[in-house]
Amino acid sequence: MSLFVIGDTHLSFGTAKPMDIFAGWEHHAERLQSAWFETVSPEDTIVLAGDISWGMSLSEALPDLQWLNALPGREKIILKGNHDYWWATVKKMQEFFAANGLDTLRLLHNNCYAYGEYGICGTRGWVNMDPENTPADDAKVSAREAQRLEVSITAAEQQGLKPLVFLHYPPIYAASCNYPILEVLWRHPVTDCWYGHIHGRSLHRYAVNGERDGIKYHLIAGDYVQFIPQKIL
Hints:
There is one protein chain. The protein is an alpha/beta fold. It has one domain (3-231): Purple Acid Phosphatase, chain A, domain 2 (4-Layer Sandwich), CATH 3.60.21. The protein has helices at residues 28-39, 58-70, 90-99, 135-158, 179-187, 201-204, and strands spanning 3-6, 45-49, 75-79, 105-107, 113-115, 118-123, 162-167, 172-173, 176-177, 192-195, 210-212, 215-219, 230-231. The chain has a 6-stranded mixed sheet, with helices on one face. A 5-stranded mixed sheet has the order 4-3-2-1-13. A two-stranded antiparallel sheet has the order 8-9. Helix 4 runs parallel beside helix 5 (179-187). The radius of gyration is 17 Å and the shape is globular.
């Protein structure tokens, strides 16, 4: 039994949003499927760090979710990315999963999942990128995401679990820092944080990979890891 992670699958089996137009994304679903079967076993767990599907609704995302559900793995733990427009309330998504037999998919949202002595924790996170947002808008969203991360990590600690943190947005990118998120990480015994969102070689080079202030950061966006699920434990 092993734990894997990958971000940004950007699947589009239910909607016309091909990723092949971008360099490095050619036949990415086929590449991901091949690598997944080579690395992930039926008893393994895999965290999907956001930007799962281009579907605009649960019905549009269903072919992508069914595709993921059919891949090997006991549990696929999903957190929200900025392009997961299909994301709804937890209750609605859980009911949808149950109605459609998506029995290996789990939602990481204001909660955590036990994996041995570890707690799988996380949330989407935030970066201040939208030019239409005011500083107050960004501060509000950052504070909300930091609170969700706090709830997730605290849930793990209350069970005596060591928190492993997964985000969609990077908490640090080049010289930019999301301090509300970082302060939560620093306040708890977090040693590792995995994140996605960053695409393309020109941007990958500014990503933080390695230790910063006592925490090891790992970029696991699909194109960065060549669509190969990364083994953590």
